[in-house]
Amino acid sequence: MPKKSLEVALIAIPNNLLDVIYTACRTCYSADGAVDIYDKITDDNEKKLALIKRIISSGHYSTIEHVQVTFAINNISRAATHQLVRHRHMSFSQKSQRYVKEADFDYIVPTAISANKELLEKFEKHMEETSKLYAQLVDNGIKKEDARSILPNATASSIVTSLNLRELIHLANLRLCTRAQFEIRMVVAKMCALITEKEPWLKEHLVPKCERLGYCDEDNSCGRMKTKNG
Ligand SMILES: Cc1cc2nc3c(=O)[nH]c(=O)nc-3n(C[C@H](O)[C@H](O)[C@H](O)COP(=O)(O)OP(=O)(O)OC[C@H]3O[C@@H](n4cnc5c(N)ncnc54)[C@H](O)[C@@H]3O)c2cc1C
């Protein structure tokens, strides 16, 4: 049962995000205690942002680790979730293939395959046959945790993930790069778009790493930026 499209929702973000980061920034350079700084915080968001931008641009990233955001993601392939879970500063809760029966499973078709009618037909047929074999295994008493061994990387999953702003910037720098795989780029692009809708000042940081570095450090550069060797 394919062809559901990716859904990403931002389900948690602190409503005092700037206050938290501003307090962290000022605590480093003020004789006042952190509690007093927070209690007497200014209402002037421009002032808060000016300090925050200065501190981040000087590489003082611990100050943005205090803000954690949470996303819910539907219709993402197991291939893409496997790439996401490689990021060790993110937290995850994912639909279990041990507890949830994958009969008639949804799957994600890579755009490159869906663009080719003949290959798409073969791909879909393979999914159909896999689905039938999965049902046969489960119907014959094989536990879901073992029957799942035949499920493809394309199997659709759903996942909740939380991460702090420093890790979000790192994730964007790596996964918005054109060298990253298409699906994970789409997922991370949606995550970034949802955050920048609420916090537009983050936009300049949620970019591929070449924009941050000023050059491309990949061996196989896509050519949009000069490489590290010129
Ligand atoms: C284009 C692309 C291709 C890839 N290809 C492959 C591949 O072929 N095979 C493969 O296995 N993986 C591959 N990966 C995954 C990659 O190797 C990383 O596992 C993944 O991108 C997570 O990145 P990270 O470790 O920087 O990030 P995170 O795990 O999010 O960590 C963030 C940062 O924290 C620090 N950190 C975290 N844990 C440690 C630690 N234990 N010790 C020291 N510092 C730490 C590092 O500075 C790290 O950059 C690829 C990734 C990309 C973007």
Q: Would you give an account of this structure?
A:
By secondary structure, the protein is α+β, with helices and mostly antiparallel strands. It has 2 domains: 8-72 and 157-213, Gyrase A, domain 2, CATH 3.30.1360; 99-154, no CATH class. The chain has helices at residues 17-29, 34-39, 45-57, 78-84, 111-114, 117-139, 144-147, 165-175, 182-198, 209-213, and strands spanning 7-12, 68-77, 91-94, 156-164. Strands 1-2-4-3 form a 4-stranded antiparallel beta sheet. Helix 1 (17-29) packs across helix 3 (45-57). It is elongated. The protein starts with 6 loop residues before the first strand and ends in a 17-residue tail after the last helix. The mean pLDDT is 96. Bound molecules: flavin-adenine dinucleotide (FAD). Residues 86-89, 167, 170, 174-175, 179-180 line the site of flavin-adenine dinucleotide (FAD).
